[in-house]
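Lest this sound abstract, we let one protein speak, letters for residues, whole numbers for local backbone shapes, and leave readers to judge:
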Amino acid sequence: MFVEEVLKSLAELYSEGSRKVSAENGNLIESELKLYPASSDSVSLLTERYSPLPEDYLKFLSITNGCRLFEDVVYGGENDIFSAEEVLETNSHYNHPSRIIVAYINGDHIFIDLEDVKAGRTEYMYVYEGGVDFDDASSLYCDFQTWLDRFVMAQGNKYWTWRVEDRKF
């Protein structure tokens, strides 16, 4: 699992505080990283409600209980990977039997399909662009740590909207 290395590299990038990142249309923004302290109690509550959760996602939560990535220091942002508590709260409004929202990225909901996880599939991450419609979502063709790694490499930009012929990354 490389989720730990992704988070370590992020922490190192932001070790001296904020930093500039390239955003859409050639804009540079001063950004910051907010990592929240891990909480085994919160993760326990989450695993009681949703099972099975993927190992890479659980590893992420064991390191940080959610985070805000590439947040504009002036205007804020909407790059939230939810804490365990936020996952429980957010999903209490939707009550889908197998899909749970784990992040909100600039208007898009990112979620894990627990049926895919249970079946042993490694491509269990999905996105619904612009709202929440679990049945009309698009596969991100990856696991959580790969999604996180790509999102970090894209510096907080929604790489999944960069249209490619087969959309399989």
Notes: The mean pLDDT is 92. The two ends are 19 Å apart (CA to CA).
